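Cross-posted from the bioinformatics board.
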Amino acid sequence: MSDSPKQPDPLTMIIFGASGDLTRRKLAPAMYNLSAGGNLPKFRIIGFARRERSDEQFREDLHKAIHQFSRAGTVDARHWKAFAPCLSYLSGDFTDEARYKELKDRLTAAAQELGSGNRLFYLATPPSLYPDIVRCIGEMGLNEPEPGSWTRIIVEKPFGKDLETALALNREIHAVFSEDQVYRIDHYLGKETVQNILVLRFANGIFEPLWNRNFIDHVEITMAESIGVEGRGGYYEEAGALRDMVQNHMMQLISLISMEPPIAFEAGEVRNEKVKVLRAIRPYTTESVKTMVVRGQYGPGRVEGQPCVGYRNEPGVAPDSNTETFVALKLLIDNWRWAGVPFYIRTGKRLPRRVTEIAVRFKQAPYLLFRDTDVKQPDQNLLVLQIQPEEGIFMQFGAKVPGPKIRIQAVNMDFAYGTSFQEDNADAYERLLLDCMLGDATLFTRHDEVETAWSIVTSIMDGWKQLDDGQGSVAMYGAGTWGPREAAELIERHGHRWRLP
Ligand code: BG6
């Protein structure tokens, strides 16, 4: 995992889907910030999309988008003057050969201007278009790097919709690009607090000896959102929380928190260990889906004081939809480190607040020394990795309340990014784009990682299909609550309780 201090070599970035939401919200602000921060070399961006637009209109659109979505919340006129001329636009159908010829000509011209033929393709279109685009790139020979240059492709999620489609997509991509040219993006890996999981575990001597079944009782991961489906009802109906959050972001957190130490901080080694632990996750059977997985859907309610409609009343959602907006599950990792340690995970929309955290609960002290006092069983020691919006880590342990009697209270030892560091946290896309330009794939997902994550998630979906019986068994929860009652029962059955984040 490099610190990305280097500057990449000059390059041309080609964004497929340049008039879409992702370009406006994430890609344009990230490229602008990288450029304004002096982290980009000489570059060109060619936006490719179906919508008719002139170069000038494209620049205006991106100016507005950067103003609206960039973390600085503003566009500096001086930087914009340098940035804008690097942008151009190509409109047309993604399967039109003539447009790819035009693209090829533009790439040749850009390579001459920049003195470098490096090319970065970015697939930011709906995923159904990926196979055609990749095939057309291949037919035009644009996948082949020029001598002395590189060609890479970033692929956005969703990467398939089950194991079979993910395998097919990998085959289609591999027919044109070799694996080391492919960068599958998961923006969670671009978050500072997520990268810090590995630093916490492997740069400190005190945690790793405890990081196993002998000392850890269980792990809870919460990825809660207060937002609903935000106008993406059509997409979400096809996806649901399991595909939208668990297959990708959640599996990334699970693998980072549970993997073995890699032998080096290098893409191949880190990803080998991530795949290895994912492969140790016990697949679900219909029976275990029944007892270990809960799916929920929000009904009407209030979130952060505001009334909100139920999922079935969101635009683009079927009035009798059984798509899950919440999933909670118990997951087991069958290896020496984790045998018998349950991982409880939950994610959902329209929960009371936005919070992502990993809570590691340690086993009780082996013997209650203070038994002739008022002390009941003290709380389990707890280590919480706060991913967002709070960014930090705290450790909870028991301390003696001052006074003549022995009384014990849980207290915190706290680290917060805001108080310890002055540096700004760059947006995840900035970090990931830069890593890709530098050829560092550590924070990108390898094909076998995606496939292994899909095989676990697909075993759950298969279980649901078996159980459904055409009835649908999604449990309802009110918007603004922590999910259906069944989610609480899932963990309480084992004598635990979800932490209130
Ligand atoms: C996206 C999902 O991948 O992640 C969205 O499609 C979700 O549904 C988003 O809201 C959450 O990302 P973050 O960074 O806001 O936690």
